[in-house]
Amino acid sequence: MALRRLGLESGRYQKSPRAEQARAWRRLLPLLPLLAAACAPVDAQQRNAARTDAAVATVAPAAPPSSGLQSGPQSGLQPVPGAMQPAPSAPSGMIAPQEAPLPLAPAASSPSMAQQAVIAARDAMQRKQWSVLAVTVPQARADILGMYPEYWLLRYQLWNLPANQRPTPDLQNFLRRNADSYLGDKLRQDWLLVAARSGDFDTVNKLGPVKNTGPQTECAILNARHMTGRKVDARQAMETFAPGPWCWTLYDQLVADKVLGWEQLEPQLRDAIENNKTSDAGKFASYMFDPAQMKAYDALMRDPMKWLVKQPKPPRSRAETELVTIALARLPRKDLDVADAYFRREWAKSLPRENVAWLRGQYALVAVLNLDSRANDWYVEAGHIRMTSYNQAWKVRAALRQPKIDWRWVMASIDAMPVSDRADPSWIYWYARGLAATGRKEEALRMYAGIADQFNFYGQLAAEELGRPITVPPRPAPVTAQELAQARANPGLQRAIAMFRLGWRPEAVPEWNFAIRDMDDRQLLAAAELARVENIYDRVVNTSDRTATQFDFSQRYIAPFEGRVAAKANEISLDPAWVYGLIRQESRFIMDARSSVGASGLMQLMPATAKWVARKIGMDNFTPASVNDFDTNTILGTNYLNMVLQDLGGSQVLASAGYNAGPRRPIQWRSTLNHPVEGAIFAETIPFTETRTYVKNVMANATYYAAIFTGQPQSLKQRLGQISPQAAEPTPLP
């Protein structure tokens, strides 16, 4: 099975009748153009306005426009005919209380008129039929999801109309009426970013902060502070920065104002070069180099060797030294052996020691990602210099792959990490292993104890180091009827459930997550129980996973479908706990989950793999359309998993990796070993980040499911086993 991202695209709400009704309603949508015809002039006006706005969007106004955040008369676009009318304003400086949520009715046999309007509004939004969307807004208002059409229209007007034509009163009223909702926060963020784009920094300052924030929003807020006279230092900017339009705008200004200089930008340029983010690297380079130097930079990025052979030794300036260093860092991407030999022969003695050390770390990273045995020696040559978190982690992993592990080097390498990285359970565990191996057993036990209560891969391994078998924690008091009723009355959860029923997973998930963001343990357990009642299994798991002191494993490690998955596994003597552990990681029990590369169903089968397995096991009635069917998907998935397991010598570690990345890859990874390694070390040193995380999660999941199914203590170490070297051989499996 091809390597695939774990993100899931939209899926139906467990094949709900409501989703089928939504599709039936969409078949009526051809009638809506009749409404659009009447509103065509308005659409034309909006398109013209959008073009006007695009022409001026990058030019800051001579004087910042009015923020529109104070009550009182406002200049702005009159509402689109048929759109919402502004609700009465609250007194100046006050926020009106949020309206009481509309009750969430059980799934009806046919959608109400208001719900039909919501469905039509979403379709119009997706088709960019803005006048049709405007017509649906008042018709949809009575539905539990009535705020969504209103938000979609306001978002369109906000982003596409000139500043003096935006419906400011409508924006204000929406924020007042939906102050503590996901969409209220989302519209606040939209308005903030639009204001930042047009240079209206006073509005940005008044709208911020937002609850569901991100780097671009935070960069916009920092830039507004800087532009209105409040000091923003380099540290704040660098901690917030992520590539994107508002963060680049912040950096443009801070570089121009000399808040950011070479000392801050050089590490970020090198990090971008390491990550092969060439567009970002070019932007950082433009801050650091003059036009002539940028011409050289462009040349070396096109062909580093061709450029390098023409350069003087040693470089004559700081900028030339950096350009040579970047060119040498690009070389191993084409041929590591040629690059290493050339670097050592021609440049190692002509560059500053710190540049040579950084380059050794870059060559080591390329080597270790190819499981090249030279990587550890090159990391030792580099020493404990500043590296990216990614490269720091691989320095430790390279050491763990050695026949005789130098535990003092492992501990020193972890000590060189940033504090936030050292706090990760993986590095706490391996540091504790180092302490134990070097005779500091009491310190090791204390470190193990610090993570042994965490329900993850390294929490389980730490517990076993303390002599604790892996068991299921005591179940907390059951969710009461009152607690469940309170969860059901939560307006955010109501809206999320309504959207799950319609099959609108992309909208439902963030609405749900926003609703549970500040819940305590009892509220989270109740919300998870509500999701169980509604058969929204991924929300059961993800919600219950957030509890801090009360742990209900019947939610965290839910095993739905009444044992039918276990039955399919038992039919071919496959470990049901492992299968459930894999499904929990693959799809979170969403029956028609679909990955970004096309893997489908509970067990995330790629179409070609499903077809191959069906032919192999004689499933004559298989069709591609049936891959999401429960029986079809689990029969094909368990059979394929069993084939991979047998092909990889019965190792669940290797087979889990093969199920995610394709069976040829763990065969190749195993062949690079020169001695047997612990299963935990093999899992930790898988070169693909997604597959490494996947394998650790699947194995930890399987251990807990085994404890639940058997009622007996379990051992993750025993399940991981040992991985021994074996020459790579062809496999017939796809």
* Average pLDDT reading: 89
> Which structural class fits the helix and strand makeup?
mainly alpha
Overall form: globular
Q: From the alpha carbons, calculate the radius of gyration and give it in angstroms.
A: 29 Å
Let me know the number of strands: 2
Could you say what the CATH topology of the domain at 564-723 is called? Lysozyme
**Poorly predicted ranges (pLDDT <50, ≥5 residues)?**
2-15, 30-102
Please report the first level of CATH classification, the CATH class of the domain at 564-723.
Mainly Alpha
SS field, number of helical segments? 40
- The N- and C-terminal alpha carbons lie at a distance of 6 Å
Beta-strand portion reads under 5%
Describe this protein's structure:
It is a single chain. A two-stranded antiparallel sheet has the order 1-2. 45% of the residues are buried. The chain starts with 16 loop residues before the first helix and ends in an 11-residue tail after the last strand. The protein is mostly helical and 734 residues long. Among the domains are: 113-235, Alpha Horseshoe (Serine Threonine Protein Phosphatase 5, Tetratricopeptide repeat); 261-387, no CATH class; 481-551; 564-723, Lysozyme (Orthogonal Bundle). The longest helix has 24 residues, at 33-56. Helix 26 crosses helix 29 and helix 32 packs across helix 33 (576-586). The model is unreliable at 2-15 and 30-102 (pLDDT under 50).
